[in-house]
TrEMBL record:
Annotated ranges, domain EAL: 24-280
Source organism of the structure: Obesumbacterium proteus ATCC 12841
Official protein name in the record: Diguanylate cyclase/phosphodiesterase
Superkingdom of origin: Bacteria
Subcellular location: Cell membrane
Amino acid sequence: FACSKGNGYSMLYHSDIRAEEILNINMLRHLKSALALNEFFLVFQPIVNLTTRNITGAECLIRWRNAELGMVGPDHFIPLAEDTGFIVPLGAWVLDNACMQLSEKLSSGEWPSDFKLHVNISLVQLMQQDFSHSLFATLTRHNIAPHNISIEITETSMMKETEILMETISTIRRGGVSVAIDDFGSGFSSLSYLHKLEFDTLKIDKDFVSDVLTDSRNESIVSAVIRLSHGFNVPLVAEGVETAEVADKLQAMGCQKAQGYYFARPMPLSEWPDIEKVLP
Ligand code: C2E
Ligand code: MG
Ligand code: MG
Ligand code: MG
């Protein structure tokens, strides 16, 4: 990151600086004040059981609305937050806010007691020494049972397995919180880490799911991952399901759960459907 390399802002006038880096500096400036200015909010996307078509849980996704930048997608600012360490306070805010909203839905009875809320956690956060401690402290503060939470960690970060990571994941699972491997298949990884790592759910990346009907190679990959999930005896969530045809195909192939625009877009909880309603 240009700014942190020492020559400071004079670098901006250097002819070969990339436009992207200038944008990043501007974004970082806004990012650092965004927590205090209350510019972040959370949206929740239903996760559906493909057989019953009932909502069994949700994934919580962060949104950022800034006066100058407009809406900025997490794919743009999460990497920047990770590079600068800002993800640590930001991730803590996400967890706290998600638990607060979850706790209201559970205590009002709108969501059943076995509802599972998935929260994305980045590797930088997970590697903080006190991560599991602060996770459980947050749950306690909001009076939430551990089985109501699943943390999502991307396959790519799982591959950077270290002692601390394994130990943290083990502590988290012993405490009753689930662990999901996110974007499975996109990490270009070897399968060897799967037998070492503990996890409760696999999520297959939307890149494979979206054209499962038209691309026979992708169909083979999805089919192999479905069999893998059966072998490990963990549920598989297919991400990015956009049509009835893809949902039906995945169901026929034996995929247990799904998430995608066909069922519902990520929404603030105020716009959420009645959980009892069978979707769509
Ligand atoms: P992800 O965890 O894999 O989340 C799924 C992404 O797919 C979300 O993008 C979601 O809006 C999108 N999506 C859902 N259904 C469909 C569909 O049917 N079609 C298509 N094309 N896309 C669909 P989003 O919200 O832009 O988030 C992007 C990524 O940013 C997430 O990928 C996750 O890695 C990261 N992220 C989001 N919120 C957080 C957060 O609170 N903390 C951390 N550390 N990362 C987050
Ligand atoms: Mg995720
Ligand atoms: Mg994903
Ligand atoms: Mg992703």
